[in-house]
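Protocol step 4 of 5: obtain the predicted structure for the target chain.
Materials: sequence only (see below). No template structures provided, no constraints applied. The aim of this step is simply to have a reference model before the mutagenesis design in step 5. Sequence pasted as it appears in the construct record:
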Amino acid sequence: MDDTPKIGPVTGGPADRLAEVLSATGSVWTFLLMFLIVADVIGRSFLNSPIVGVAEIAGRSVVAIVFLQLAGAILSDRLTRADLLLQLIGARSPALRRAMEVVFMLCAALVCGLIVAGGWAESAGTFATSEFFGVQGVFTIPVWPFRWLMTLGAAFGGLAALLAAFRIARGARA
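Step 4 output (structure tokens):
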């Protein structure tokens, strides 16, 4: 059995509350997207009348939902990773495991920072040029809200990873 102290969710701080709100927004969005897809399937299968634009909305929504829920996943220690090696190391050396977790979070913050750096100008550009996605004349959807959600979600995710690294380093929960 692993005797390493578990890093569990921390609640109460402003960062944790913001992460929960963003995550809840992503969850509600997921529910609404599922409702839209089911309605499209019913309309397509039984009424011979599909809902136009469902594929475009779903394709953009999935990415936005992931980035909305990123900070919450990091701060509640639900970020997906293969932790078999961490468990084996943690059984022998909890300090080494904690150090590896800190490095993991710092790498996550770096990746999020790179996404923000690459996405900031692109997000601003899609708003300025009124870029749309879809088939003109059939269904189009503006790209800028999805780009900004991805960029801002990565920014919050990066800050959450830095906060988690700090918390793990001082022995607190993520």
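Step 4 remarks: The beta strands are 132-135, 139-142. The chain is about 70% helix and 5% strand.
Proceed to step 5.
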